[in-house]
Amino acid sequence: MKLRKFLSKALGYDGPPTDRKFILEETKEEKFLAADGDIKGDTVNAAHPRCPLKKPKKPGQNEQTANEQDTGELRHTLSENILYLEEKFHLPKNKDVVFRSFTISTVPEVSAVLLYLENMVDKQAINHSILQPLMLLSHLNPNQGANLATYQRILQSYLPSNHVRKLTIYDEVITEVTGGATVILFDGCSYGLAAETRGFAFRNIEAARTEQVVQGPQEGFNENIQDNTSLIRKHLRTEQLITEYEKVGVRNKTNVAIMYLEDLANTSLVKEVKSRVTGINADYLPESGTLEEFIEDHTFSLIPQIIKTERPDRVASMLIEGKVAIVVDNDPFVMLVPTTLWDLLHSPEDHYVRFPYGFWLRFIRLAAALLTVLLPALYVAVATFHQEMIPTDLLLSIAAAKERVPFPTIVEVLLMEFSFELIREAGVRVPGIIGPTVGIVGTLILGQAAVAASLVSPILIIVVAVTGLSSYAIPSYSAGFGLRFMRFIFIFLAATLGFFGISTGLFIVFCLLLSMNSFGVPFLAPVAPKTVRSADILIRYPVWSQEQRPDYLQTKDRQRQVNKSRRWLTKSPDQRKDGGSAGAGKQNRRD
User: Fold this and answer.
1) For 43, what's the count of Cα atoms within 13 Å in the CB-facing half-sphere?
2) Residues with Cβ < 8 Å from 533, sequence gap 6 or more?
C-alpha cells in the first residue's frame, strides 16, 4: 500500500469501510425528552415508560434451498459412513485418527464403530463410559436389531456420559471429532452419537499476568473456553446470563461464546455482535486479536475500540452494565463491547479501594497518558523553538549540558526513544528469568554510556525515563501501544512547527476520536455527545452514588440500585429487620 493512500485512510477516516453503519439509537422517549435541551431529565422512569424495542429488519440474504446444496446426511450402511470419513480424514496417512470397531450385544449382533482423535480424548472415559456399557448390554430386545427404538434407548439408558448429542450429517461428525468428542456410528442407522470425552491438556487457572492488582480476586482466564465461561458464571450467579456458542472459520471451526445479560443488554446490540461474529468468512481464527480485527469499526485507528481483559471480575462488572462479552476458545483474553475511551483508562482495582484512593489512581493514569503522548514533543518544541518559555537558570543548565552534543534535539530524542523501545521489546522476547534484568541493566548502561559519550544530554534521559514509566501506567496493553506510536507523530510535529504543530496534532486526534464509534456507541460518550451524567468516567464517585447505568448503552434497565442504597442511615436496626425483605426492597426500587 502506498504511503499516500495509507495516510489518507489513517487521517481522513470517516466511518466503517462498509455501506451499512450500525448506530445504537436512542429510544423515542429519550429523543422527545432531549428536544427541550435539558439533559438531566432524559431518563426513562415510571412517569415516562419505555416502549418495547422493535426488531430490526433482517438484511436480504441469498439462501440456498435444500435442493441446491448437498446435505451430506449419514447413510444407513456403516461401511459407507466409514469409507466417507476415512477419505475426509485422509487415512491411512493420518495416524492420530482412530476407528475402533466393536459389536453391540444384541441378537443379531449390531456392528458399530468409535471415531476419535487419539491425543485429544480421555481414554478412560471411552473405556468405562462408552465401550463397556455398549459391549455388555443385557437388557435390549434380542430381536430388535439396530433401529430407531434401539438408538433412542441407547441414548437414554446406556451411555453414562455427561453430554451426548445426536448427529445426522457428516459435517457435525467432523466438527465433534476435531473438537475432542467421541462419535459412535451404528450399522443400519442413519444417526450417530457424540459423547463428551475431551481430555487434551490445558493450563490451570492462575493469577492474571497483564492486569495484576493488590486487592481483589487474583484468578485469571486460561485457554479453555469452558473454564472461562464457568469463571464468569462464578461471578454472575443469575439465570439471566446467556451464553450462545458460534463456530467461526472455514477450515478450523473455532468456538466463540457470546455472553450477555438477557434483562439488561440492548437487543439490537446483541444482534449486531452476533451478526459480525457469524459473518466472518476466514480459514483460521487463532485467537481474540484476529477476531478483533474482523469485527472492529475503525481498522486504521491507533486507539483500540474493544477492551480485552483476562480478569473474570472485570468481565462480570461490565456485563452488569449492559455490555456484551466475546470469549474465544484457545485464548485467555475476553473481549467486551462496546468500548469508550474512558474504559481504557479504568482498572479493576479502582473499585476495590476506597473512593479517595480510586480517584487518585484515575488522576495518575490520566496524567500518565498525557505524558506518554506529549512530554517528548513538548521538550523538542521548547528546546527548538520556544527557549523564551524556559526560566533563565534552567535554560543555562540545558545549554551547558547540550554544549558538547553534536546532534540536534530531534535526533537526540529519536535516538533515545528508539533505544527505549528496543530495550522494551527485548525484555519481552528474552526468557522470563533474565527479561527484567536485561531491561534494567540495558537502560542504565545505555543511558550512562550515551551521556558519557556526549551523544545525548542528561535532561533528555530524564524525559525519556519519565515517558517510559508513564506508558507502563496505562492499564490497557493495546491502548499503551497506540499512545506510544502516537508519541512519535507528535515529536515530528513539534520538530517541524513547535507548539503550533502539537496543537494541530491534538486537534486532528480529537476530531478522529469524535468521529469514531464502537458498536454503535460514540467513542467519547458520555462526554461527546453529552448524555446523562455518569458517576464513573474519569472520577470514580462513591459506589453508593452510582445509581444509574451508562446512558449510552441503552440498557433495558437503567436503574443500578435504589436512590437510598444505604438504608442503615435512615432506619434503626429494628426497622431494617422488620421491613428489610427482598420484596419490599424491590418495590422501593421500582417506586
Assistant:
1) 16
2) 39, 40, 526
Q: CA-to-CA distance for 378 and 323, rounded, in angstroms? A: 38
Reference 317, options 540, 588, 42, 567; nearest CA is 540
DSSP state, residue 54: P
CB proximity list for 339: less than 8 A, separation 6 or greater: 304, 305, 306, 307, 518, 521, 523
Query: What's the pLDDT tens digit per position in 464-499?
Result: 889 988 988 898 888 999 999 999 999 999 999 999
C-alpha cell at 232: 464468569
Place of cell 502539537: 502
Instruction: Supply 160's cell numbers.
Output: 453414562
| 3-59 tens-digit pLDDT | 666 656 655 545 445 556 777 777 666 666 666 555 555 555 545 555 444 444 444
Helices (H), ranges, 63-185: 78-88, 123-126, 132-135, 148-157, 170-178
Task: Scan for cell 495518575, then name that residue.
Answer: 364
Residues of the chain with pLDDT under 50: 13, 15-16, 46, 51-70, 138, 142, 145, 581-591
**Residue given cell 450462545 in the structure block:** 244
Strands 517-518 and 324-328: unpaired
Which of 169, 174, 212 has its CA nearest to residue 191?
169
The answer to whether the CB of 398 falls within 8 A of the CB of 383 is: yes
Handedness of CA 379, 384, 388, 392 (dihedral sign): positive
Contact, 53 vs 267, CB < 8 A?
A: yes
